[in-house]
Amino acid sequence: MPTPDPTSLTVEVVRLDPDLPLPSYAHPGDAGADLVTTVDVTLAPGERAMVPTGVAIALPEGFVALVHPRSGLAARHGLSIVNTPGTVDSGYRGEIKVLLVNHDPVEPIELSRGDRIAQLVIQRYERVRFAEVDVLPDSVRGDGGYGSTGGFGRPTPFGPDHEE
Ligand SMILES: O=c1ccn([C@H]2C[C@H](O)[C@@H](COP(=O)(O)OP(=O)(O)OP(=O)(O)O)O2)c(=O)[nH]1
Ligand SMILES: [Mg+2]
């Protein structure tokens, strides 16, 4: 039996570069649709660049597109995104761009027009009302953060029952 197409949302896309593909999912079930670079670019070690993808989208209100790195390029070459994940707002109509960075300490990264450089994950988001108060409700974590539960090992016990 053929798998039903689970695509739930249509997103309008303008191809600013008609010779390059639309964002596309590599497999059924993938969360990320791959984006390509429209330009050849070489990133020296530590260098970053704003790379055009040749697409502009109109997301319905209530949805956001997040620009994520591709893990294979990160693992093999140290390629990542400076502001990962990038946020594409539903009202944005400009070209989607990717702020690539080469984290490799030694090797340059050469990208060619049409290479898949990032992936777009489209999600619902909430807009909230920020209600100002003087005191926040208690919680078990409280203001502990930034390693308060310990490092790589098992979490340090904490909370109301813990005695030093
Ligand atoms: O990786 C990204 C991140 C952002 N954008 C576009 C879409 C987004 O809606 C707009 C603004 O992004 P953001 O809010 O992150 O940037 P900002 O520095 O806060 O700019 P602004 O003052 O325009 O909001 O830039 C991209 O194309 N790629
Ligand atoms: Mg902003």
From TrEMBL:
Which principal EC class is assigned to this enzyme? hydrolase
Binding annotation for substrate: 70-72, 83, 87-89
Q: Which cofactor does it need?
A: Mg(2+)
Q: Which UniProt keywords apply?
A: Hydrolase, Magnesium, Metal-binding, Nucleotide metabolism
**Could you say which protein family the record assigns here?**
Belongs to the dUTPase family.
Tell me, in a sentence or two, what this protein's role is.
This enzyme is involved in nucleotide metabolism: it produces dUMP, the immediate precursor of thymidine nucleotides and it decreases the intracellular concentration of dUTP so that uracil cannot be incorporated into DNA.
Supply the HAMAP family for this chain.
dUTPase_bact
This chain belongs to which protein, by name? Deoxyuridine 5'-triphosphate nucleotidohydrolase
Protein encoded by which gene: dut
